């Protein structure tokens, strides 16, 4: 099972802002907590996101859409996606422009969660470490 804690996400966000620019800071800790916990939600005793890949995609989506940080929400959504995919020996096969377009489209609600999920799932490949 995949897992990432709040401290690691905060550190990844800090590194991202330091490297690529933007404003440091958490806008709403409850929205960050929600993004981390949502992938593990259940209903009627059944997981809503049963596979590791389902959980990873949902967390990435939630980090972007919950907008927990002052700046860099798309980046942290992407970095967490890549980090967690690596944990299960997967990587994205998308080029940089496609990744940028995907996350920009998501952030302005031009694509749905299902479209985001399908795009990610159809563009992951196994990798050896």
Structural account:
With 129 residues, the chain is mostly helical. The protein has one domain: Fic/DOC protein, Fido domain (Four Helix Bundle (Hemerythrin (Met), subunit A)), CATH 1.20.120.1870. It is built from six helices and four strands. The protein has helices at residues 6-20, 29-37, 52-66, 73-87, 96-107, 113-121; strands at residues 42-43, 46-47, 90-92, 124-126. The strands form two sheets. A two-stranded antiparallel sheet has the order 1-2. The model has no long low-confidence stretch (mean pLDDT 96).
- Cα(first) to Cα(last) distance is 18 Å
Query: Architecture in CATH?
Result: Up-down Bundle
CATH superfamily (homologous) name: Fic/DOC protein, Fido domain
Query: What is the CATH class designation?
Result: Mainly Alpha
Assign an overall shape: globular
What structural class should be given to the helix and strand makeup?
mainly alpha
What fraction of the residues are assigned to beta strands by DSSP?
Answer: 5-15%
Radius of gyration: 14 Å
Biggest sheet overview? 2 strands, antiparallel
For this structure, the CATH topology is: Four Helix Bundle (Hemerythrin (Met), subunit A)
């Amino acid at each position: 099972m995949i897992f990432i804690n709040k401290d690691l996400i905060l550190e990844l966000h800090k590194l991202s802002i330091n490297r690529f620019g933007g404003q440091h800071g958490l806008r709403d800790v409850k929205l960050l907590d929600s993004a981390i916990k949502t992938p593990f939600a259940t209903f009627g005793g059944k997981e809503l996101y049963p596979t590791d890949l389902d959980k990873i995609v949902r967390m990435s989506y939630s980090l972007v859409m919950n907008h927990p940080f002052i700046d860099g929400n798309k980046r942290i959504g992407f970095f967490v996606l890549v980090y967690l995919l690596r944990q299960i020996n997967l990587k994205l096969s998308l080029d940089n422009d496609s990744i940028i377009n995907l996350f920009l489209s998501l952030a302005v609600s031009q694509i749905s969660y299902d479209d985001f999920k399908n795009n990610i799932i159809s563009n992951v490949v196994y990798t050896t470490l």
